[in-house]
Design a protein that fits this description.
heterodimer, A: mainly alpha, 20 helices, flat, B: mainly alpha
Chain lengths: ~280, ~200
């Protein structure tokens, strides 16, 4: 066999493999995740230094240098301006930036609540629990700690325990099962109806059986019925974190339970002050 | 499980057409102005090609779904940093590649979803073709990443050598030489493993 024939053979086999279609609901899933993103797009175009940013910086520097040269030329011809009388040899006190006192109008309720939480015994206990601290600092959790619905949901002991469920991890790591959850939610189907749904394919019936089992469990059903928690569980990084033993320990810790139950926990988490406190201590 | 599912995917012949025109720019502009729904157009346009690339890169259906979805979400998060002088595909492809590499790094042994799934077989008349496809996919996965990239971009998309070079950050002639080497290596692997070329 010649090289050319061999390459043609390889190309033929690759063509037989062909492209693949993403599963149904792919676009909807991406858009659901994007809808949870805080809006932070800007209309301006950011040009990375590697793509022309340096050139812009150089242009600006040349502009400043040219202006300085013109100014020096003017001074050389017309003489430099005299220094003001009484200032000779004076070393003035360095003017430091002083943050103005916070006025009452600047303090919003959320700040006060967050501050109260950060000074509470519950927060102190949280800081003394290395597993809970590590869990709350995990990057996979970070985005969700900014969402009110997520924070409200994890106040429930049942939900925190359910997030570590092996069954939920299995469901959300399988695309058919994930779609079966969405179908069940959309159809507002009770667990019995889901269980009895006709199985037109082995894969789908297996997925539906798993989903029906999950809906039968009150704690798991709470997770499945919560859009933000479903979205979080569909995120593989979040799911991997929740499946870890360290997360299981953190989710069942008394320190975390006490902390999330505090009024100011949500405010501290959503404002980023909790994250800052976790990093700084 | 992924092997079973792989054979169940409705593959269509040919390659994925990658649309790269002014419409991309329009959609990006709308997104940057705060119109989130415009991103749906981007996902619609690129979902098939990114999913195909991820599937061939990883050889695992669920990982490919995750990688492709993560690539879209991250591209949305970083859209303001996209250099509009570049082609959108070249940019999002790099994000996808990083997601695939992360998925490979974080890969953990998986169990089939249920025992019955693991025993689902292909119909007899399709068995041989399914086996052959599995062999080809396995051979692709055995290639070094540098070779795998060019093979996948060339054989599963309709990108030109220039566009592939743009996505990979190399010249078109380098794409050609890498492709030649990669095909040779792939041929050797396939001969050694049995599928008939």
């Amino acid at each position: 066999m010649t090289d050319h024939e061999s390459e043609e053979g390889v190309a033929h086999l690759l063509a037989e493999l062909g492209p693949a279609d993403p599963p149904a609901g792919f676009v909807a899933n991406v858009m659901a995740r994007i809808s949870l993103e805080p809006h932070k797009q800007t209309t301006g175009r950011v040009v990375p230094f590697a793509k022309g940013g340096i050139a812009m910086t150089r242009k600006a520097m040349w502009g400043i240098a040219a202006a300085a040269a013109i100014l020096l030329g003017v001074f050389a011809v017309r003489g430099f301006p005299p220094v003001g009388r009484g200032t000779e040899g004076t070393v003035g006190a360095a003017k430091k930036y002083q943050e103005p006192q916070i006025a009452a109008k600047d303090v919003v309720l959320g700040d006060a609540a967050a501050q109260e939480f950060l000074q509470s015994e519950a927060f102190d206990q949280l800081m003394k629990d290395p597993q809970a601290r590590s869990f709350l600092s995990d990057s996979a959790l970070n985005a969700y700690l900014k969402k009110q619905e997520f924070l409200d949901a994890i106040k429930s002991n049942d939900v925190r325990t359910a997030l570590h469920s092996e069954l939920l991890a299995k469901i959300f790591s399988d695309y058919d099962a994930r779609n079966a959850v969405e179908d069940a939610i959309k159809a507002n189907a009770a667990s019995a109806a889901v269980r009895q749904a006709s199985a037109d394919a082995v894969v789908k019936s297996s997925a539906r059986a798993l989903v029906a089992r999950a809906f039968d469990d009150a704690a798991l059903a709470k997770v499945l019925n919560n859009a933000v928690l479903r979205s979080a569980m569909a995120d593989s990084q979040f799911r991997n974190l929740m499946s870890s033993q360290a997360a299981a320990a953190a989710l069942s810790s008394q320190a975390l339970a006490k902390a999330v139950a505090q009024n100011g926990f949500n405010a501290a988490a959503m404002s980023g002050r909790l994250e800052a406190a976790l990093i700084s201590r | 499980m992924s092997d079973v599912r792989d054979s169940a995917i409705n593959f269509s012949a040919g390659r994925v057409y990658v649309s790269q025109d002014a419409h991309d720019d329009l959609l990006v502009t709308r997104c940057l102005r705060g119109d989130t729904t415009a991103f749906e157009g981007i996902v619609e346009r690129y979902q098939r090609v990114l999913f195909t690339l991820a599937l061939r890169m990883l050889g695992d259906y669920d990982e490919a779904v995750d990688a492709a979805q993560n690539a879209f979400v991250k591209s949305y998060q970083k859209l303001a940093t996209f250099d509009r002088k570049r082609k959108f595909f070249s940019w999002i492809y790099r994000i996808l590649l990083n997601e695939c590499l992360n998925a490979r790094r974080d890969r953990r042994p998986r169990e089939p979803l249920t025992p019955e799934l693991a025993t689902v077989g292909s119909p007899a008349d399709l068995f041989e073709a399914a086996e052959r496809r599995r062999g080809v996919q396995a051979a692709i996965l055995a290639l070094p990443m540098e070779s795998r990239e060019v093979i996948i971009l060339r054989h599963f998309t309709e990108l030109s050598y220039e566009d592939i070079g743009d996505a990979l950050g190399i010249e078109a002639k380098t794409v050609k030489s890498r492709l030649h080497t990669a095909r040779e290596r792939l041929g050797q692997l396939l001969l050694a493993w049995g599928p008939r070329t």
